[in-house]
Design goal:
Length: about 270
């Protein structure tokens, strides 16, 4: 009886063990089967959205792209195509916002940069949009790439300094290398700070109405200081209730209704639906 009980107990343990392993394996097989089906569904939905665009049904295409984004499968292509649909609808501000979301994923995509530049030119009333040299330099790399490059240069400098301390005779020979490495770390550090400022510490607001009035104060009764067109990007200085204090590219400042703007904070998550 004792041996039988021990044997029965062993079968129960083995049975539980097989059950424990069988369930994850079945889930794994189910995921393998569902994954391609889901991917095929998303691909079909993307093609359907593109077809709506090609047929000139731009509003329906925007809705279709938004539905795709709500699945959590954001991509450069979806944001890019949605931006094109917004632009065709005459919604330049929303087009620029969609292009900028695509830019966060593929910052060096030439087609994306061309369309973004064209939309920004339209927002400026045909005045050619061109980044200044400093911002073109910062845009050459992503924030992560600036971080990695600066860290690598700093570690190289530390390594050279350690060698110079360990072998003073080598340190004297490496003096030029040390100076070059130090300057490189300094320049890369400045670039990293600039990229951080653009990527995390600068909030912009994009005009999404035909024309927005920028007032001298955060009141409807305040005098209008100037007006800005759909798609113009303004830096946000402050917020008060439903008002944003902004400054435009010409360094004019004032207050504008938040309902007329789309707040865009680089480096942070954004609602996929504009």
């Amino acid at each position: 009886m004792r041996a039988g009980k021990e044997k029965l107990g062993s079968k129960q343990r083995n049975g539980r063990s097989r059950g424990v392993w069988r369930l994850p394996f079945m889930v794994f097989l189910l995921l393998l089967a569902v994954g391609p089906i889901r991917a095929a569904d998303l691909s079909a939905s993307f093609e359907q959205a593109n077809k709506l665009y090609e047929e000139g049904k731009f509003a329906a295409a925007v809705d279709a792209y938004n539905t795709l984004l709500e699945t959590g499968r954001a991509s450069t292509a979806i944001y890019f195509n949605r931006g094109n649909a917004f632009f065709k609808l005459g919604q330049v501000g929303r087009a620029i916002a969609s292009y900028r979301l695509a830019e966060q994923i593929s910052p060096r995509d030439p087609d994306l940069q061309a369309n973004l530049r064209f939309a920004r030119t339209q927002a400026r009333g045909g005045t050619q949009y061109r980044k200044d040299l400093w911002h073109r330099w910062l845009g050459a790399l992503t924030l992560n790439e600036w971080t990695l490059l600066t860290a690598a240069a700093a570690w190289l400098l530390l390594g050279l300094l350690a060698i110079a301390q360990w072998r003073p005779e080598l340190g004297r020979k490496m003096r030029n290398w040390l100076v070059t490495a130090g300057l490189t770390v300094f320049l890369l550090g400045i670039s990293l700070v600039g990229a951080l400022n653009n990527g995390y510490f600068t909030t912009t607001a994009i005009v999404i109405t035909g024309e927005a009035e920028v007032r001298n104060g955060p009141l409807d009764e305040s005098q209008t200081a100037f007006k800005v067109r759909d798609g113009v990007e303004l830096n946000v200085l402050d917020r008060k209730d439903d008002w944003l204090e902004v400054v435009d590219p010409a360094q004019r400042s004032g207050w504008v209704r938040q309902s007329q703007m789309l707040i865009f904070e680089p480096g942070r998550e954004h609602k996929s639906k504009l």
